[in-house]
Amino acid sequence: MKRLSLLVLVLVTLTGCAAIPTNTQPKPIGSKDSKASNTPAAPEPRQNIDPFMLVRDFLNATANPDSDYAAARAFMTPEANKNWDTKNPTIIETGFSTVPTSQAAQDKTQTVLLQGNYVGRLGSDNAFVPQLGEFRIPVKVERASDNQWRISEPPLGVYMPQNLFNTTYRRVTLYFYNPEFTVLVPDPRYVVIPPATSIPTRVTELLIAGPGDAVRDTLVSALGTETEKFSDTKESDDGALEVNLTNVGKDLTPEKRKQIVAQVVKSYSGVTSSRVRVLVDGQQILPDQRDYRPSDVSATAGETLLALNANLQGMLVTDGSIRSLTDGNPIKGPAGAGTYGAVSAAQSLDGSRLAVVSREGGGMRLRVGELEQDLSEVDQRATTLSRPTWQLSTGQGTEVWTAVDGNSVARVTRSDNGSWTAKGVNITEIMPFGSISELRLSRDGTRAALVIAGKLYIASVVRDNQDVSLRSPRQLQPSILAASVQSIDWLSQDVLVVSSSLPAWPVTKVYTDGYKMDRYSQSNLTVPVGSVAAAAARQVQVVDSSGLWSASDITDVWKSSAIRVPSGALVFYPG
After folding, report:
1. Is the backbone peptide bond immediately before 195 cis, with ω within 30 degrees of 0?
2. Is 489:534 a contact under the CB 8 Å cutoff?
């Protein structure tokens, strides 16, 4: 494509609807075009500092990413500066050390040992990837011609202490669609903050690049693969944030245009409080509306599909029967009467169907059917079955999953004649981690949270024609939760609530990218905390040895329920 002339750019900026000359192809303005031509020189390192402080100051200088980390490069020799790769920073714990090695120090050269613990890294998609373990990296330094120490062999790539990462990067949540284009799904990334005015453009670039590596085979974008920026994303004179795109795809139907608007507007909902204006080649994408707020796109984003009906207040499994969480009374039908000797259960998102795991002989059996009616036996016998979990459906639930004997996963689907049949899920990437005790599908159906050998994992649900797989598994918060996890549930599309046997972390809120973790109040709870139930716009419910407790937020003191339940009871919301 040829570049737009400066005159055309000025006209588009001033008029907003000026016609583009037919003899010139529009060209998106790339990030290189928007870089400042005069960048202030990076500050020099402090004079006469020793090698150990030099390496420490070098890592601290990574807080300034301007001009490809020029501030950190100032600590290097010219040759080291030339070869240093700054892509995909590695995040380390703030309390790192710089200590001597066993090698004897020389007058002109010395080796400093950089050691500490990993937190994670940013992938090429700017998504956080958890990383566990210690590191011990030799960093060589030498005296320069002015007798000042400089780094001659730095670590491979940027090693950024976590406190600096928190001030240098900002978490943004992009949105992409499930394969059916019925629900928008969050995909968190991290962008450099300074300068803050460039954050919208960085978000646009990531949005155009598509779903992150872990969900690339799970989510889809409404933007065509050839989409580019038409101009940088910035605030217009009237206060709206203008997202100006080009090459968004051929045959843009009104429905596809609405999907693009919803995806873009939702992706900026955590970045700006301004109205969002979606443009294609400088022209508004939909003729009937110019600017949008998140509430304008909730229907296209599928929010109503995920929202639980206000009448669905949750249930309990206790003493073999299914009871209402509202008053503790048994629900109508054989499941409530205790006919099946229920061990665990799950209610479909719309509330119309129930899946129950019951004991039978020396094993367990799954039953599925209409709520308050007889449940059909599924031909899936096992020694153990995990608590069932329902897959997203636009109507009544038609697919429910369970882990079988800890080493396989079955998805039970409903045929047109009303029968329920068990099919396998490919868990090749999951199997090496151990036995699965808990499995919870996100309510948008695109991710699975699992407890494997007491550890918390997240995986992507990938559907390829008739084959279904769990892929890209990642352990979350391994250094804190370790193998202590008891139960899990989805609070929102990208946040889990986790109960554990840890006295200091009985119930936590864990973000699915694994970077952040918030602790609920410890008041009144007794570890281990067993069953947990969570959902958007619902109180978190947990069961410990003394009964059923609820809280609305992480700062709330847990309140005891009037419903008396034994310590082994299970609490659940639809999903």
Report:
1. yes
2. yes
The torsion angle over the Cα atoms of residues 64, 80, 38 and 10, rounded to 10 degrees, is -90
- Residue 456: closest CA among 470, 431, 437, 428: 437
What tens digit of pLDDT does each residue of 450-498 get? 999 999 999 999 999 889 999 999 999 999 999 999 999 999 999 999 9
- Omega before 194 cis (within 30°)? no
Q: Coil, helix or strand for 461?
A: strand
DSSP secondary structure of 354-418: EEEEEEETTEEEEEEEETTSPPEEPS--BS-BPPPEEPP-SSS--EEEEEETTTEEEEEEE-TTS
Q: Find all residues with CB under 8 Å of 54, minimum gap 6, and list them.
A: 45, 75, 112, 141, 149, 150, 151
Report the predicted TM-score, pTM, of the whole model to 2 decimal places. Answer: 0.90
Q: Which helix (DSSP H) or strand (DSSP E) does residue 175 occupy?
A: strand 169-177
Q: How far apart are CA 359 and CA 385, in angstroms?
A: 10
Cβ-based neighbour number of residue 361 at 10 Å: 7
DSSP-derived 3-state class of residue 244? strand
Q: How confident is the model at residue 359 (pLDDT cuts 50, 70, 90)?
A: very high
Local confidence band at 41 (pLDDT 50, 70, 90 cut-offs): low
Residues 563, 318 contacting (CB under 8 angstroms):
no
Asked whether residue 187 carries a pLDDT value surpassing 70, the answer given is: yes
